[in-house]
TrEMBL record:
It comes from Thioclava electrotropha. Keywords: Cell membrane, Membrane, Transmembrane, Transmembrane helix. It comes from the Bacteria. The chain crosses the membrane at residues 40-59, 66-84, 90-112, 119-137, 157-180, 210-233, 245-278, 290-308. CDD domains: TM_PBP1_transp_AraH_like (cd06579). This is ABC transporter permease.
Length: 329
């Protein structure tokens, strides 16, 4: 059996199980159900951000401003809660989604209407968003004692033994899965990334599709921003700084083609869980947290190399006999 015929999700799942097994050989408590649930809950923000990034990468773009979007939306929510402690949580969630989606739409509009490459646009807005946080907060932190209990406890509310943060991630995974597999917009994401010229001939507006991908990414980043700030009960300018690297890494490790047009929701979730297991295991095995960035960077390079190798064109097969010899066993 050719290993190239094995689904990427199955290989990644086995790698995660093997990784947990190696860690458990030295620290058995790591694989206790309660600890694994904590690891999954801690990884929920990364999963939600990676789902948005997945949609953007599918359309041959990239969003490097997701972490800055998270920080700006989280700061706006924190400042609003500080000024109006009784502000309803339902409206707070809606506000986070709207602010995040607006910031994503700004990225998409600059890519579509101005024609600036996505990496340049999002590098610029990443800095702009951080600057706006500084202007809004004056460089000060919003700490736990300045936030209401309802604000900070919302992501921790247990439901069936699992924190609400994890359930929101489950809802996001289900929603994005249905979007990309059951709707015309989801098919447009794949079509635009796979062959934008052919997509135009099928009636797909490439620019609008890319804008909608950025809006989805921004909305998920905004929602994650509130949940992040509320869970850790602190908001400041540099919050989640550098987290965009983990988001891209989760997508690439999960098999999303950096050139667009290929990838799956299952792969993205497993890619995020892979990074979550590594990051939670590093302190257990006494490895410095400063190695996390190096590991994330190395994981991106290895995953891109594997993706490029698996997607390499096989060349034109002229003889029918030779074609049969290349069929999978």
């Amino acid at each position: 059996m050719n290993i190239r015929n094995i689904p990427r999700e199955a290989i990644l799942g086995l790698v995660i199980v093997a990784l947990c097994g190696v860690i458990a050989a030295r620290f058995p408590a790591f694989v206790r159900p309660s600890n694994l649930l904590s690891v999954a809950t801690d990884t929920a923000p990364l999963i939600m951000l990676a789902l948005g990034q997945f949609a953007v990468i599918l359309t041959r773009c990239i969003d490097l401003s997701v972490a800055a979007n998270l920080a700006l939306t989280g700061m706006i929510c924190a400042l609003l809660n500080m000024a109006m402690p009784g502000f309803p949580m339902v409206l707070m969630l809606a506000l986070a989604l709207i602010v995040g989606a607006f910031l994503g739409a700004v990225n998409g509009a600059l890519v579509w209407k101005v024609g600036i490459p996505p990496i340049v646009v999002t590098l610029g807005t990443m800095t702009v968003f951080r600057g706006i946080i500084f202007l809004l907060s004056g460089g000060s932190w919003v700490n736990a004692h300045e936030m209401s209990d309802s604000f900070t406890q919302f992501p921790r509310i247990p439901f069936l033994g699992v924190e609400l943060l994890a359930w929101i991630a489950v809802i996001a995974v289900t929603g994005v899965y249905l979007l990309v597999t059951r709707t015309p917009l989801g098919r447009a994401f794949y079509a635009v990334g796979g062959n934008p010229h052919a997509a135009v001939y099928t009636g797909i507006d490439v620019g609008k599709t890319q804008v909608l991908a950025f809006v989805l990414s921004g909305a998920l980043a905004g929602m994650t921003g509130y949940l992040w700030v509320a869970r850790y009960a602190v908001a400041y300018v540099e919050i989640a700084n550098g987290f965009e690297l983990d988001v891209v890494a989760a997508c690439v490790i999960g098999g999303v083609a950096i050139a667009g047009g290929a990838g799956s929701v299952g792969g993205v979730v497993l890619g995020a869980l892979f990074l979550g297991v590594i990051k939670n295991a590093l302190p257990v095995v006494n490895i410095s947290p400063f190695w996390q960035l190096a590991i994330s960077g190395a994981a991106i390079i290895i995953a891109v190399a594997l993706n490029a190798r698996s997607n390499r064109p096989k060349g034109r097969i002229i003889l029918k006999k030779a074609e049969h010899t290349h069929e999978p066993v």
